[in-house]
UniProtKB/TrEMBL annotation:
GO cellular component assignments: cytoplasm
Annotated organism of origin: Bosea vaviloviae
Domain notes per entry: Contains a C-terminal catalytic domain, and an N-terminal region which modulates catalytic activity.
CheB-type methylesterase domain ranges (all copies): 175-367
Molecular function GO labels: phosphorelay response regulator activity; protein-glutamate methylesterase activity; protein-glutamine glutaminase activity
Name the UniProt record assigns to this protein: Protein-glutamate methylesterase/protein-glutamine glutaminase
Gene (name only): cheB
Enzyme class: hydrolase
SUPFAM superfamilies per the UniProt record, alphabetical: CheY-like, Methylesterase CheB, C-terminal domain
Superkingdom: Bacteria
Main location (coarse class): cytoplasm
One Pfam family named in its UniProt record: CheB_methylest
Function, as annotated: Involved in chemotaxis. Part of a chemotaxis signal transduction system that modulates chemotaxis in response to various stimuli. Catalyzes the demethylation of specific methylglutamate residues introduced into the chemoreceptors (methyl-accepting chemotaxis proteins or MCP) by CheR. Also mediates the irreversible deamidation of specific glutamine residues to glutamic acid.
4-aspartylphosphate PTM positions: 67
Amino acid sequence: MTSLSPGSAAAQRPKTVVIADDSVVVRGLFARWLGESGQFHVVAVAGDGETAVAHAGRFHPDVMVLDLNMPGLGGAEALPQILKESPHTGVLLATTLTERNARIALECMTKGAMDVLSKPDSRGGMTLSLDFRSEFLLKLSNIAQSPARAGALPPEIDLDFTPAGPVNLRNLVSVMPRYLMIGASTGGPRAVAKVLADIGDALNDLTTLIVQHMPPLFTASFAEQVSAQIGIPAREPYDGERLSRGTIYVAPGGRHLGIDRKLGHLVASISDAPPVRFCRPAVDVLFTEGARHLGSAALGLVLTGMGSDGTEGAGALRRAGAAVIAQDELSSTIWGMPGSVVRARHASAVIPLDGIGSAIRDLLRGGKPS
């Protein structure tokens, strides 16, 4: 999470919030939590999309909590109008967990929504769940602070490789990678889709594994969306499934994705083990097991997201001889995960989102065969 100095005006000013939800109970609950936190000021509430759009234009809030299912103009239809009225408002989608809502939410995240929060099925479950409250406040805090990014790395951080122009990763690896492992969280769906589209048909030469922090159902819809967009098979793997080149494997929501070796073949390992760094699936699990079984044949990529998941695993990859790319700060929605990797000096390269796919394509064209 980005920190602000206690004496700064930005640190002292509560972030402004508009809550758009058709439930009076939910609006009241969210408003109470936000008020009690001391970090936020709810400037308005809305029970439908039309009112949410009007409030965006009037108040220009730092954050809007937007329910997908509202009467009249729903959240998905209201989103582009909200961002047109207030382009700098960060939007957190709030929705119940269904396949339909997952598809809609993912589409919204390609159109500017920053993150999604899965609401419990019942109001009682929402009221009593301390985990849900904590997640709600944490997501809002990170979204609200993301426009206040410093924009530059502290001078004491000595990166292994800081590109000012085209990136040549061939100097950083001893063999051509055959496995691409990607970790992402807040802002990740759009970033992951962008990177994969830019890599293009070169993905046919890779086995790609992705950990995107998402609830169950959302990850399956995300895999379908990716496959439809780039024309390469993408799916959630089953435990023990043999890993194949030219396929994209997405960690199931709420379960870890790792790598194991059985009968001489590399297979996906799906686990319900406890969360790592509060995450399940965790990037650290995938990267650490990838380092153990793949070594320098792996290429790690850490994209936008809050927290520090992936840092420990990135260190394991580097020690195993693999390269690790971190998305740069200016192109990240939240520079938590990639920033943590950079600060730990585990990044082989720090690259803007627009340049990551082409850098990987260049590596695959000119890398040394193992």
